[in-house]
Amino acid sequence: MDRNTDPRANGAKPLVELKDIRIAFGGVQAVDGVSLDLYPGEVVGLLGHNGAGKSTLIKILSGAYKADSGEIWINGEKANIQSPRDARRYNIETIYQTLALADNLDAASNLFLGREITTRIGFVDDAKQEAETRRIMARLNPNFRKLSEPVSALSGGQRQSVAIARAVYFNAKILIMDEPTAALGVHETAMVADLIKELKAQGLGIFLISHDTREMMDLCDRVSVMKNGQLVGTERVEDVTEDDILSMIILGKNPKREAA
Amino acid sequence: MSDTDTVPNAAPSGQRPAEKAPARSFINQLEIDLRLLGMVGAFIAVCVVFNVMTDGRFLTPRNIFNLSIQTVSVAIMATGMVFIIVTRHIDLSVGALLATASAVMAMMQTRWLPDTLGLPLGHAALPWLAIVAGLITGAAIGAFQGWLVGYLTIPAFIVTLGGLLIWRNVGWYITSGQTIGPLDETFQAFGGINGTLGAQWSWIAGLLAAAFAVAALFSARRNKIGHGFPVKPIWAEAVVMAIVAGAILGFVAILNAYEIPSRVLARDFAARGMEMPEGYTAAYGIPYSVLLLIAVAVVMTVIARKTRLGRYIFATGGNPDAAELSGINTRLLTVKVFTIMGILVAISAVVASARLTNHSNDIGTLDELRVIAAAVIGGTALSGGIGTIYGAILGALIMQSLQSGMAMVGVDAPLQNIVVGTVLVAAVLIDIIYRRRIGGK
């Protein structure tokens, strides 16, 4: 993977292309003809009010919802994503806002949920899984020790580490992070930010959803703003100010473009 | 951690390796033992109290033998109910389904097979063909109910409430309301008193089981050492092994102490045209039905702890959305869980009808409540995600001990049920308080 500052500049193929995605829930057009793209080594931020359709759009990419119409292209090829399992086949990993963890299971079981390591006779190899969890956690969050406790006993940051470890361990190429720092303290938020930078340097493409505009300006290469299910616009962060983004979120239009 | 079934351990006895992680606190180590100890303690308390009240008649080999065979049917189904409740469902139809499975098996061996295939009554193939038919019936009905719940998203409460009415009366319809019997003699061997291992084989089985348990504990320990995890001191491991082996062999010793009455022996000898030698004695030993329960317990525990299926069952119970997003097919999982339940109900139907030596319409009546109560007393949380197989079996044992203890003491019938109901509610209350203290769910 190349590590250019602007991957789009030198004709790289987009990692993900969402083309004219639409989905409606009972008459409400939750996502209305949105097109987005994502390049390797790039972080694209998705901004908008609650209910703007960010999470819904992203759940279509991660296989949790099926779009009514529109196409998803991965690495220049049309992808068929019907379920979370399909998304994983395209190396798409998602870290959900609600931290999709089974509270009653331990960190290792959660990390490998749906993709257990098995022994030759087909039993889940708990010892191996725990050893692997220990290995990856040593890298992500060295303070993480509660490997065999149910994750309900963990702090928000530790739980987030488990969710992130899951994405990292299985070599995600495309990472979707839905408010990854919403439940975290200052220190843990910084940790996640560092991690995002590291993953980006490794050439992953990351969709980041957040309400924190300042954080988005800091972490993202481009930001896309949604309002009422429609895409207001996509801008490179160096081309806009925080105020521009805020007015895109609130007014649904880009003041700079309007002025131009 | 006490009850999520994620600790690798092949021993069915419920003894878990206490240590797994380095920073595991002392309280947490205690928690594991507390839960099991609490249940075992309650069971022992029930036994001791009744033993005193009956002047020592409760804890005789004979009564312990009877308690064992009375518990088997409900205990087998309770292990399946654990999976059902863990996945946040309920099955109210098990008693009725038991009647249907029992009716199918009874009709197979006494009417349908003799009439269609011309197999004479007493033919060696009859009981086995009947059992296979019963298992298929149970699995098919279970799968169907699971499909209604999982794919058509009808609440399990409603599906199985309907099932409660339907299957009881399907059983009635199949037999035209008649009591069907006597059942095949080989078939009856699964009922308890009519099929036991005898003293010698019981000892062999006991020794094998003890050796297996010790070996399983050893291999779990070796596996942990192999991955560089801390293990408990060897003396502690030895104590656990000694307790497990001692419990198994002690149980065998008690069952072997229950001797077959001499008039029964004399009748057997007479049937073979022989004279019974003077002073000849023989013991019942382990009933086949108890062996069946142990086998079911081992298989279900292995499924719960060592297989993906078990992991998915507990994950789905803990957080259905997370399970779905992790790529688990939770609908199909529901079908599988209800199918397992159906198969276990059919196995219980073999034991229950064999014990009665015939099929009657009211077989298994109210079993759904006993089974659910056993699972819940055994620590299965109705909120899902939590439950153990050994807990459910202990729960069934506690319920049965209460019931037959009160009958022996001579408690009035209405009072018996009042006590059992109270115990059920109290057990859940204690469990809730306990969990709150531990800080779990």
UniProtKB/TrEMBL annotation, chain A:
<dbReference type="GO" id="GO:0005524">
    <property type="term" value="F:ATP binding"/>
</dbReference>
<protein>
    <submittedName>
        <fullName>D-xylose transport system ATP-binding protein</fullName>
    </submittedName>
</protein>
<keyword id="KW-0547">Nucleotide-binding</keyword>
<keyword id="KW-0677">Repeat</keyword>
<dbReference type="InterPro" id="IPR050107">
    <property type="entry name" value="ABC_carbohydrate_import_ATPase"/>
</dbReference>
<dbReference type="InterPro" id="IPR003439">
    <property type="entry name" value="ABC_transporter-like_ATP-bd"/>
</dbReference>
<keyword id="KW-0067">ATP-binding</keyword>
<keyword id="KW-0762">Sugar transport</keyword>
<keyword id="KW-0813">Transport</keyword>
<dbReference type="InterPro" id="IPR003593">
    <property type="entry name" value="AAA+_ATPase"/>
</dbReference>
<dbReference type="InterPro" id="IPR027417">
    <property type="entry name" value="P-loop_NTPase"/>
</dbReference>
<dbReference type="Pfam" id="PF00005">
    <property type="entry name" value="ABC_tran"/>
</dbReference>
<feature type="domain" description="ABC transporter">
    <location>
        <begin position="16"/>
        <end position="253"/>
    </location>
</feature>
From TrEMBL, chain B:
<feature type="transmembrane region" description="Helical">
    <location>
        <begin position="64"/>
        <end position="86"/>
    </location>
</feature>
<keyword id="KW-1133">Transmembrane helix</keyword>
<feature type="transmembrane region" description="Helical">
    <location>
        <begin position="413"/>
        <end position="434"/>
    </location>
</feature>
<keyword id="KW-0472">Membrane</keyword>
<feature type="transmembrane region" description="Helical">
    <location>
        <begin position="92"/>
        <end position="113"/>
    </location>
</feature>
<feature type="transmembrane region" description="Helical">
    <location>
        <begin position="369"/>
        <end position="393"/>
    </location>
</feature>
<dbReference type="InterPro" id="IPR001851">
    <property type="entry name" value="ABC_transp_permease"/>
</dbReference>
<feature type="transmembrane region" description="Helical">
    <location>
        <begin position="125"/>
        <end position="144"/>
    </location>
</feature>
<keyword id="KW-0813">Transport</keyword>
<feature type="transmembrane region" description="Helical">
    <location>
        <begin position="238"/>
        <end position="258"/>
    </location>
</feature>
<feature type="transmembrane region" description="Helical">
    <location>
        <begin position="201"/>
        <end position="218"/>
    </location>
</feature>
<feature type="region of interest" description="Disordered">
    <location>
        <begin position="1"/>
        <end position="22"/>
    </location>
</feature>
<keyword id="KW-0762">Sugar transport</keyword>
<feature type="transmembrane region" description="Helical">
    <location>
        <begin position="279"/>
        <end position="304"/>
    </location>
</feature>
<protein>
    <recommendedName>
        <fullName>Xylose transport system permease protein XylH</fullName>
    </recommendedName>
</protein>
<comment type="function">
    <text>Part of the binding-protein-dependent transport system for D-xylose. Probably responsible for the translocation of the substrate across the membrane.</text>
</comment>
<dbReference type="Pfam" id="PF02653">
    <property type="entry name" value="BPD_transp_2"/>
</dbReference>
<feature type="transmembrane region" description="Helical">
    <location>
        <begin position="150"/>
        <end position="167"/>
    </location>
</feature>
<feature type="transmembrane region" description="Helical">
    <location>
        <begin position="337"/>
        <end position="357"/>
    </location>
</feature>
<feature type="transmembrane region" description="Helical">
    <location>
        <begin position="34"/>
        <end position="52"/>
    </location>
</feature>
<keyword id="KW-0812">Transmembrane</keyword>
<keyword id="KW-0997">Cell inner membrane</keyword>
